[in-house]
Amino acid sequence: MDYLNLPVYRHKDLILNALQNNQVIVVESPTGSGKTTQMPVILHAAGYADRGIIGVTQPRRIAAVSVSEFIARQMGTTLPGLVGYKMRFEDRTDQSTAIKIMTDGILLQEMKLDPYLSKYGTIVVDEAHERSLNIDFILGLLKRVLEARKEFKVIISSATINTQVFSEYFGECPVVKIDAITYPVTVIYDPPATLEVQQAIQGSSSSQAAADARIEKIESIVGRVQEERRKGDVLIFLPGEKMIKDCMVRLAAAPYGRNLQLLPLYGRLGKEEQERVFLPAPRGKTKVVISTNIAETSVTIDGITTVIDSGLSKLNYYNPRTFTSSLIEGPISKASGNQRKGRAGRTQEGTCYRLYQRKDFENRPLFTTEEIYRTDLSEVVLRMADLGITAFEEFDFISPPGREGLIAAIETLNLLDALEADRTLSKIGKMMTDFPLPPRQSRIIVEAILKYPDVTQETIIAAAFLSTQSPYLLPPGEEMDARRAHHSFRDPAGDFVSYLKLYRAYKAAKDPAKFCENNYLDERAMGEIANVTEQLEQIVSAMGVPILNGGSTEDYLCSVARGLIQFVCIREGRDMYRSLTADRILIHPGSVMFRMDPQYIVAGEIVRTTRMYAMSVSPLSRNALMKISPDLFEALDANAAKGTGKSRKIRDFTNHIKIGAEVFDIETVKGKKTVMLPWEKLSRLKDAAVTDTAGIYKGLRGTIILNGKFVLLAGEKLELILTLLPSLDVEGALTRKWPRKKNFNVREELDSLLGFLPILVTPALWKQGKKELGFLCLFSDDDGNYWFKCSRGFHTALNESISSVESLIDELGDDVDIEKKNIVNQTYRRLSEYLG
User: Fold this and answer.
1) Measuring CA to CA, which residue among 376, 368, 383 is closest to residue 404?
2) 185-372: same fold as 3-177?
3) Cβ(699)–Cβ(651) below 8 Å
4) DSSP H helical segments within 130-232, as ranges?
5) Which residues of 331-361 are buried (b: 16+ CB within 10 A; e: fewer)?
């Protein structure tokens, strides 16, 4: 490759002249210009390494590795050496490293010991347009360094997205624009036919039905590309890992599937798998990369001429009032849409298919909401205190966070005993900052060190599990075998003790790769958990603390709960829990504690998907709760006795309401405003994007009416009804046959039982002669007996059915033929998809 032909070299002198005359410059360029890999090389050749290390920050681990390896190859060196990289728990640098590529979190960690970056002469903040919380914090800290060190240089490297905001933040510093040759891209707005109703509704449906419709449209478009024998490869943007995998299965099964090289691209993939997207496709095949938004700007894939854009992405949102998180799928911004389109025109003319309408695109926001407005600020506030910054509200962020977010962060740190009254770090807070972990997770380890030293190793393992991706895999078609394998590590003391059993079995395995394969575990995730555990043990040892283990389970769970004190919950009715700040919390069906119903629990996190779920759950005794915090114990009990005490103010929908293109009457039923939803009208919205607008109807109830007299989900929350709408099969409810008052023994009547699994959690007539419809659910006992009932509530039916299907999986074992196994697998997968 002739690097000198990259667009960045045509502007090399302009960049160097601007940097010579200014402390800060912004370099703006489209993807593929070479700015990420060549800027450090240009700076090194110009002698900037003589002033100190040339540091380059990257928001993603994959980029830190791939960029450093690329530069090392180009400069004829090996890692570590002249070029190196560093990320959490992995350091490939040495004393000779002059060009250091690092994740942005590493730079923040280094500023703890060296606030003015004395080892560095130049910092390049790459991918600054992503505006992650770490990037925004780094920019504010770099301002302080620039004031103290007049020789210090900073380059803000950004795609062509709102670069003027960086210039204004750094005192109208110059913006150097790199012009790259781009080719025309034809944009075709081609939404799936079943989603055409979206003309009247803003947003995009995130239901399974809508996802299937998009994948079907993608299959059609890729087929068209194949038929027309178009040159170049295909890049498909989808919102998440599950939809990527579903799309790969669909394309592989297509008539033209053998002509495709299908490659996924998302953050959880291992380095080797991710790097396959950069290699040319085998002769005679078309490379099809199916990616999350990681391919928008972070990586450049040569040869793409066709882009298929779902128009969706997933973003994390943090609720500072309840300390809960939501991973929300929603429409991308115009800027993201244009970045995706541009990937098709880098090397020749291309085509971008948008699976949404032109009007929809025109109504979208210009830019994505910055992370600082939608994330937990407690880690940043802790780092600020560690740097001696206590006037948190006055810190010069490029986009100041809301007051509510800062107050919530301070409250979190106070609950963790990390701050003194004057906002300086407490002894506990200082210990917490030694760990490259979020505050709650570091507090778990600190609690063990200070109070429960015999479980120090156990808490380190727990923190490692919480700080990495879940290792549990559920491959399509193998759900039954996978769940059984995962169940072998279950412990009555919940997920946190199950993690210990799994980790120790993994470490004891002679062949870790085979162990992961046999137990349906992600080998990369388990390797990372082991690596994180070892690194955390080194940090604790460096404190002079011995790594002890073997203490009591109660001591271990007390340490865990002290760090996760905001996620300690008390049971409030059947299957329902509340914390001090959130209510109506369910234990997630993936947890060991699902259906166990203990009085008190601690969760690793509380996440809203289709419902509010507690994830990674273990039970707590009353005695343990008193040891953790007597005040918390009293507050939980008091709140449980009096209820939430909250009243929601709802919008004043008087006599009717418009949902999509349909108008529905509102009646007052038992003192509550209830929307009457005749099925013949409601069903016309099944494929519309009403799920994304459901939130505006909070506080309203609804009732579905079939044939003018049968009712379903009577008095249920309207937002839940609209969320379920795309997958509701109401028409067959009156004729659906199901076995009333019939017990099935799995050893004698398995075939009959399996025959009814496909209709689980579908609407059915509650009782003959009655006008109420419910949802069919499966119950079981501990003796191999199963029976069907109808439940008024959808989630009651869902949770009972998932629990019973899991029991069925355990009872069937390996002695079941492939056809029966497929029925159970498909049922389990279908039910699990409702969980979001």
Assistant:
1) 376
2) yes
3) yes
4) 133-148, 164-169, 208-227
5) bbbbbbbbbbbbbbbbbeebbbbbbbbeebb
d(CA 533, CA 421): 33
The answer for residues whose C-beta is within 8 angstroms of residue 707's C-beta and 6 or more apart is 679, 734
As a whole number of angstroms, the distance between CA 162 and CA 339 comes to 12
456 by DSSP, 3-state: which?
Answer: helix
Look up the CATH architecture of domain 185-372.
Answer: 3-Layer(aba) Sandwich (3.40)
Residue 291: which of 310, 315, 272, 305 has the closest Cα? 310
Structure tokens at 763: 């609407």
Q: Are 733 and 672 in contact (CB under 8 A)?
A: no
Where helices occur in 11-101 by DSSP H, the ranges are 12-21, 35-45, 61-74
Residue 699 in tokens: 């506080």
Instruction: Scan for tokens 């509102």, then name that residue.
Output: 666
Provide the 3-class DSSP secondary structure of residue 668.
strand
The count of C-alpha atoms lying within 13 angstroms of the C-alpha of 391, restricted to the half-sphere facing its C-beta, is 4
Report residue 357's pLDDT band, with 50, 70 and 90 as the boundaries: very high
Q: Could you state, in order of their start, the residue ranges of all structural domains in the chain?
A: 3-177, 185-372, 376-433, 437-561, 564-642, 656-728, 733-833
Two structure tokens written together for 103: 């994740």
Q: What is the pLDDT of residues 421-449, one digit of tens each?
A: 999 999 999 999 999 999 999 999 999 99
> What are the backbone angles phi and psi of residue 561, rounded to the nearest 5°?
-70, -25
Q: Partners of 717 in the beta sheet?
A: 701
In single-letter form, the type of residue at position 146 comes to L
Separation of alpha carbons 277 and 231, rounded Å:
17
At how many degrees (to 10) do helices 456-466 and 523-542 cross?
140
H-type alpha helices, 474-629: 479-487, 495-508, 512-518, 523-542, 553-563, 622-628
Output the CATH code of domain 3-177.
Answer: 3.40.50.300
Q: What CATH number does the domain located at 376-433 have?
A: 1.10.10
Tens digits of residue pLDDT in 627-673: 998 888 888 877 655 554 443 443 444 578 888 778 899 988 887 88
Q: Is the peptide bond before 80 cis (omega within 30 degrees of 0)?
A: yes
Q: Cβ atoms within 10 A of the Cβ of 88, count? A: 18
68-105 pLDDT, tens digit per residue, is 999 999 999 999 999 999 998 889 999 999 999 999 99
In angstroms, the CA 304 to CA 608 distance is: 36
Length of the chain equals: 836
Check residue 472 and report its DSSP letter: B
